[in-house]
Structure formats: C-alpha cells, structure tokens
Amino acid sequence: FGKPFSYDVGCFNGTFFNYVAAFGAFTATSYETSRESKKILGYGAYVLNALSNLPASLTNRTKMKFIHDGVEEEGTFVFGAISNSPSVGGFKLPFYEDSTLDDGKFEVLLVAALDNLEVLHNVLTGVATGNIDPKYVHAFKTDKIEFICEENTAWTLDGEDGGKHRTVTVEIHPKSMTIMTSKS
User: Which secondary-structure segment (H or E) carries 7?
Assistant: First the structure.
C-alpha cells in the first residue's frame, strides 16, 4: 500500500499545525479572501485580495522580543513565519534547501519593518535569492521559539485564522504524524 513517513508537527500555544505559523504582511489573505471570489477567480482571487491590502500589509509593524536556543533578541517586523518547510506560500527559500519535514527543526524567517521601499525591495529580493542581509532579516532553525509582542498580533496557522496573541510559544513535535507515501 505504500511506505509510512513520519513528519514533524508544530504546536502554537497548544494548537497543532502542519506547515506554517505566520504574522504580518499578506498572512490574512488566505482566510480573508471570500469563497465566492475563489470560486470565480481561483488563485487570482488571492492575488487581487493581496494587492488591495498592499499598503496596509507593508505598513503594519509588529514590535516584539523573541527567544530561541538561549538567545533573546528584539525588533520590529513586517513579516514573520515559523515553518516546517523550505518554502512558504509557494516561494522556495534557498537558505533552507537542506530542510526536511522530519528534521526536528522549524525554519524561522523574520523580515524587519522598513520605511524605504527601495530597501524593502532589495531585502525581499535577497530573501527570494538566498542573499539575505542579517541587518534586516533573521533566518535560522530552532525547535522552540517564544514571542512577546508589544500588542496583540494576528497570526495565521496553516492559512487559517490563528487569532490575536501577545505571547506565543511555538514548539516542534518531532515525527509526530505519519502518512502513507507511494511505494517507491
């Protein structure tokens, strides 16, 4: 019938997720796009929703502390994702090429809030090409991360509304879910 494959599962303040927990720019697009629009326009509905929210998405800022692996850091971010995959939202992240679904680690990506659109463009291009600037982008792997936000922050879990939270703990549960894969 196939071969069993066990993969890691994330736990976000006690709620489990498979793929990604995220906040900031464009993260609400998946659950704020109406079903009617999706039926009529398909993927285009997401694109139109994202474009209509572009100014708000890029000006939204989340000031927070984050703690991982005994290190405490802080910053103000326009986007953050804790994922169990080398890609987020269909975009492959070159600096996570060696990541797997069963490595016991999350891939964390935090993008600093910037006022200069040209610098933001360069930063996002760097993320897409794997040329990240550590002054603006935090990219690392961990099995647990805690966030303490200055105010309640909206999160998405696997594309669904994850609620607003001021403090968040995200932990990995290694090889906790098993699926059957093809025989090969």
Answer: strand 3-12
Q: Are 19 and 93 in contact (CB under 8 A)?
A: no
C-alpha of 11 from chain center: 14
Strand spans (E) along 35-159: 62-68, 71-83, 87-88, 91-92, 106-112, 137-142, 144-157
In this structure, what token pair is assigned to residue 62? 């989340």
Domains, the chain, in order of start with CATH, read 3-25+61-178 (2.60.200.40), 27-59 (no CATH)
Mean pLDDT score of the chain = 81
pLDDT confidence tier of residue 46, bands split at 50, 70 and 90: very low
Q: Taking the model in full, what pTM does it have?
A: 0.80
